[in-house]
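chain below, 619 aa
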Amino acid sequence: MWRSQGLFFMIAILIQACKSDVNVTTDGSRRAKLLIYGSDYDDKPINGEEFDFIIVGAGSAGSAIANRLSEIAQWKILLLEAGYPPVEVHDMPILAPVFQFTPYNWKNLMEKQDYMSLGLEDQRMSWPRGKGIGGSSLINYMIHVRGNRLDYDKWAAMGNPGWSYDDLLPYFMKLEETRTRHQDSQYRGHEGYVKVEDVPIRTRSAETFIEALQQMGYSYVDYNGYQQIGVSYVQATLQDSRRCSAEKAYLRKAQERGNLKIIKKALVTKVIINPITLEAEGVEYERDGMYYTAKARKEVILSAGAFHSPQLLMLSGIGPRYHLSELDIPVLKDLPVGQKMYDHLSFPELVITLNESIVFKASSFGINEFKQYFSNQPSLISTLGGVEALAYLNLNLTNRNPTYPDVELIFMGGGLHSDFGLITRKTFRITDRMYNRIWKPIENENACQILPMLVHPKSYGYIKLKSKDPHVQPKLYGNYLTDAYNEDVRTFIASIRAIQEIIQTPAFQRYNAQLLDTPVPGCELFRFDSDPYWECALRHLAVTLHHQVATCKMGPKYDPEAIVDSSLRVYGIKRLRVADASVIPLPVTAHTNVPAYMIGEKASDIIKQDYMYSPYPNY
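prediction:
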């Protein structure tokens, strides 16, 4: 029964989500035919018009900047976004993976890598990024994590004044309104735009995970508060059990301000830079096959994300000289744009079978769940794609600081089998051969999953242009598990051993918990559960959790890898900044949505400080 009900609803939702180009109702209301919230935003392009600030990209950082800069009534702000506004079904948290198949995802694929992604389609990993007003906050899993104090203290120690944890804590508090039951209130914000809530429904398997970690000596913590090491139910970027995206948080009301203009379906193709003065003067953008320009009196701010901000810089003549010359792009400033890119890798193959029905069951998901959701009652619709709890552990392998985690463990009260392989496993591009061998036999069984995520990888990749055509997506290279001393692999295997210990606790053994021992196809030659076996399994099935950073790295002028300074100004180019996750210099102990909001808040204050006290900031 569930297969027919669930599949029917998923197909209907996908059809609705894909019909993005909508018209407002004929009665003149701001409500769109396909339930676009608030407004369909501006449908009219502008050409040659002047603004004080032009912001490229309406993702988490760009939305925050647009809101905060438009607080200054005398400033005229333009926000350009290549995608569409969200539709009503974006509010349903459980549908997080569904939107990766819609026009709200840029649908990037990683380039093939030797000895990696061997169990994925065409050996290419999916690297989703949000395309729409709200950016990746429209398609992410809504997991609200700031990061560790030491993450940001490292930034400051690298030569970035103003970016220590103590400097940034006020911004983390400013952006959020925390409504979770367990919180370190002195570290949490209570008046911000981004709402943070508990998920209203939990499985007993999640309770078991929490209990198991406590039996191992870990504390129940507010991982966004005083201490991160420990275990907790997941904190979610939700408002009344519905997705709280950047669009909902920062733009829905701000777009009514007369000084903020937001244009959808506007693909910025390059930053217009004066080749003599090296000043950013505006942008060129394309909409429906027509090209337009917009002029900036003060600044252009790139908030297009970890892929598209570096792509735009390179298309505009800012990047590695040798690479731009290959594509006949005139070089205005030789900078190592895109030459380093960190990411968080995870491993979705660790399945735990149980002898009682304490997990999400497909048979319980159907029309009644939708009825409860729309009646504002607790419903499975409000779960974060199945994610229920997080644990942060220091495995004492390469990192000796007891307060600094090596891994994050993500607990799912179900798994890739829970939707019969229809959606979630396809977001990871796991092949039929892999799915049918490992997950299909347990589709009707009681099973949950724990995904280890490596939070401080030593390996890193890079980004290159594939073409000087701005419509062509860049080439993305992961270079996972390639660090010289194999530390990433060793840390991953240590995290698997930790998960095996968790399964052996009395809490899990109450349900006769067993780690599924079906060998990964392609790894049968290795003894199951040996270190070489797990490395083989990682190289077949490890997947990204979409946290790419450092492609426009922030750093001091003496840092040969730096693209922007501590005020986020692009080196050598006046009136141009980058403000999004691409400036993050090192991988953080976080999911990158909240750090991106923080960067937007911080950048806004930096810009206000520059221009409210001096019309000529010190470039």
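The first strand starts at residue 49 and ends at 56. Residues 1-5, 14-38 have pLDDT under 50 and may be disordered.
thats it, cya
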